[in-house]
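2024-03-11 09:14:02 INFO queue: dequeued item RPE-retinal G protein-coupled receptor, len=297
2024-03-11 09:14:02 INFO validating residues
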Amino acid sequence: KMAAYTLPEGFSDFDMVAFGSALLVGGLAGFFLNATSILAFVSVKQMRTPSNFLVFNLAVADIMLNTSGLIAAYASLSYRHWPWGQDGCSNHAFFGMTAVLTSISFLAVIAWDRYHQYVTNQKLFWSTAWTFSIIIWGMAIFWAYVPLTGWGVYDFEPMRTCCTLDYTKGDRDYITYMGALTVFYLILPAYIMKSNYDAIHAYFKKVHKFRWNTSVPLRVLFLCWGPYEIMCIYACFENAKLVSPKLRMLLPVVAKMNPIFNALLYSFGNEFYRGGVWQFLTGQKFTEPVVVKLKGR
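2024-03-11 09:14:37 INFO prediction written
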């Protein structure tokens, strides 16, 4: 069944297996971690707080991205091509884009919420958590749907076993769409994360107790998504096809590892969440961590 298909330009059979395996391993690891955090939230009653609900939503978005990666891995390893046609490609890209935009939005809202958890001691209300969640999912679905209407276009990635925004066109539609995404889904969330984590860092300094490293969340986001984002912006000014297909394929594969780091940071590394994950896995009861308050607060 493979003989009828030529390998995509710039890829050997070995490359297809290598990239497919990377997507498979990354997808399975992320899927397992995020599934654990989702199941913990659903099954451990104590965990169901509005703040943890934001982390739960992040895990749902990330497990969608893991699923998208696993579909690409299956196509790469089993077929060496995309077997579900152009409509399948568009649906796959829409699904993946919704997951990515939702995930990045929740990173920003979690940063804002953490600022209130640690610095102002204001509890998040369920109504606020639900409002944020509905707006974030709704906006992500809207922005992911836009390319299906012709503003920006979904097409195959260089390996032709998964689909994403087509950055090779570089036309006005692409540039305006990419510009909007960069502002709303990179610059704005990064700004929210930086300002809130800086404020938390200053607070930790004041109470002389650093509970966790406040610079990690933004670093992880930039490490995973930065290189891919740079290429997408580069494609606004230059022909992206001049970049080697292997490098163009490597960047989204790296980006798809983001859900693994998110799960480790926000579920397993979050003092308000990991106790519930531990209770879910072992059955041992967890106690709520106490946040040190400044005198006069």
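2024-03-11 09:14:37 INFO annotate: The radius of gyration is 20 Å.
2024-03-11 09:14:38 INFO item closed
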